Amino acid sequence: MQSILTEMQALKLNSAENKEARERMQKNAINQAVEIKKQVTAKGGITEKQISEFKENKDRIVPVRDDNRINAVLKRDLSDGELKNYCKAVFEAVKKEMNATAVSQAETIYAKLKAKYPSTAAMGNGAISCYLYNLTQQSIYIMGKVCSLDAGDDNNLNNYAALLTNHGVEQGAIPILNYLNRKYAKSPVVLSNLSVAWMGLGDFKTAEKYADSCIRFFPGNAAQAHYVKAIVKESEGNRQSGIEEMKQSIGESYSAEKESILRKMGGKLAAFDVKKKLPADALGLSKFNFPTLPKSYEAAVNATLEWRTYYKNLESSIKDLEIKTERLKKVYDAKTTADAKAVIDFAKQKKGITYAFAFKNNTNQSWNNFYQLLDEDFVKKEEQLMKEVRQITDKNSKMLDELDKKIKGELAKRFEQDALGKKFTDAEACNAYKEAYDNYMLPANTTFENFYLKYIEHKRKMTNELVYAGKQFMDKEYYDYYTSNAKLQFLYALQSVSFEMPNYTPVLGGYGSACINVKTNSFTNKGMANWNDLNCGNKWEMKLPGSEVSTDCNKITFKFDILIAEGSYSEDLFTGQWTNMSLEIGVGIGSKKVTDKLGVEVGGIGAEVGAFIEIDRSGITDYGGKGKVGLEGGDITLVGAEGKISLKSGKPSFEVKSDMSKASVSYK
């Protein structure tokens, strides 16, 4: 041992040597980083300016004012006769900045749509169908071409402007939106799109004007307007107001990007900020209760059968549910394994065409996020309850010590001494013990009963709300397992309920039969209540040209028949990206289904049968719709003149500007 210690001592560096060594390593690391940076920039064509701009924009909340593009916005109003030529000018300018492959694919899709759905409205909705499948540039191209040939459809004009806004061509979109705003002065869609477009250019004063109008006319349906207000307040240095506006926007329509910006502002989202509507008793747990805790020794004796039956019923239900939960876990594990294998097989696939549609559904993210926030709140509440029960238990322990002292130190000795002289009756002795027990049980079980009522209500609320929230975003297999396990945990909580009763032998000093009135128990054993299935009425269907979107509570399914893959199509027609949605992988394009989760809100641009989709550069962020038959169980047909679908512009990405932002629209 001594030799080892000596060797270790010899290897130690003194403080000066240690400092010098650290500085040397840091210098070497810096030199290596500089060299790596040089190699990367040389080989990748990355400039110092690009690196600098990336660092500058990485945490940017407020977009940079772009005076060149602001000045490029047409200063006069467009007439009805000018719209078509203006759209054509924008179309040609944007086309120059597009990927050549995307343009070729867009032309092919356009021809197919035109052959099958020739009306202008249907063609416009067909362009939105492309956007649903993440064919962004193709969608903008088709919508631009449609408006260039026929600018008579106001809904198409709005959608084209929204697509342009979200891809850096705000200067081309604003004149179109100004035209629509004169025609639809109080449209939440148009006002929202105008506010976002001006914000994207960095003109916050104008952006706020339109945002204020949208909020004033449409409170509760102005998520994007509140987002714009948040950015405006941030630009003014009023961060607290910016945080409140961002929370309002998130509450009306959640997106991960908004939450990220909220965090950058220094704000933190709470469950109540998300403003989800939750049913009071989604699983019917209000039917599950425990017997009243007895407040006296005699009541406890007479409640014995009821409590034994209660525990027996619980044990039986728990056993059945444990078996079911384990079975569902195996189903979920098998699904997870199969999904992983499907991803691997997809990556290895060489023959045939099977695509994964990249789709970002922030409604799904919204419920997932809400679930996490709810869970945090319930965990904090449970910690408070556990602290409370520890305090109750400590107090109860002292009360038991006092009872023990009274029984052993007073009553037991008294009756032992008096027994020789027979100075008391059995009933007197029994009542003396019973009084001591009752004096303990009344405050003890009253306190514990109040606690258990709060605790079980907490568990009931937690189970109901987390399971309901989970249904909105969890895959079916995991949701089934999660729900079963959540019910099981609730039953475990019910099983933990018990009452306090002194456990001395012999009972009541051996005189129990002298003063305990044993009655026939009057309770009725109905067994455990039945579980209710979660009721979710979010079922509707939206039909577009060559495409259908249907929902069933937490599941969204896409189908299409027009975007048929042919030999000339390359795999990058679809991005192949895997996102947070679940995929049902089919063998061919025609039978392809993609599933995700969805919530529904209401919006539109004035059509009797209408719907909206909120978008940003990262994809679809929200859906909505309305129809004469209503959403629940509704069937919205958005083909030809039968219906319209409107895009509400989402947040433009300030971190990465699309190349389309360079589009120079030449129109005088």
Characterization of this structure:
The structure is a single chain. The protein contains 21 helices and nine strands. It is α+β, with helices and mostly antiparallel strands. The protein has three domains: 2-46; 78-279 and 535-668, Tetratricopeptide repeat domain (Serine Threonine Protein Phosphatase 5, Tetratricopeptide repeat); 289-355 and 381-514, no CATH class. The strands form two sheets. Strands 4-5-3-2-1-8 form a six-stranded mixed beta sheet. Strands 7-6-9 form a three-stranded mixed beta sheet.
SSE string:
HHHHHHHHHHHHHHHHHHHHHEEEEEEEEE
**Rg from Cα:** 35 Å
The description of the largest β-sheet is:
6 strands, mixed
DSSP, total strands? 9
Q: How far from one another are the termini?
A: 91 Å
Strand content: 5-15%
User: Which architecture name of the largest domain does CATH use?
Assistant: Alpha Horseshoe
Mean pLDDT: 74
Helical percentage: 55-70%
What's the CATH class of the largest domain, please? Mainly Alpha
Assembly type of the chains comes to: single chain
Structural class: alpha+beta
**Shape verdict:** elongated
Order of strands, main sheet, comes to 4-5-3-2-1-8
Count the DSSP helices.
21
CATH superfamily of the largest domain: Tetratricopeptide repeat domain
The CATH topology of the largest domain is Serine Threonine Protein Phosphatase 5, Tetratricopeptide repeat
Total domain count: 3
Q: Unreliable runs, pLDDT <50, ≥5 residues?
A: 1-15, 350-361, 563-610, 625-642, 652-658
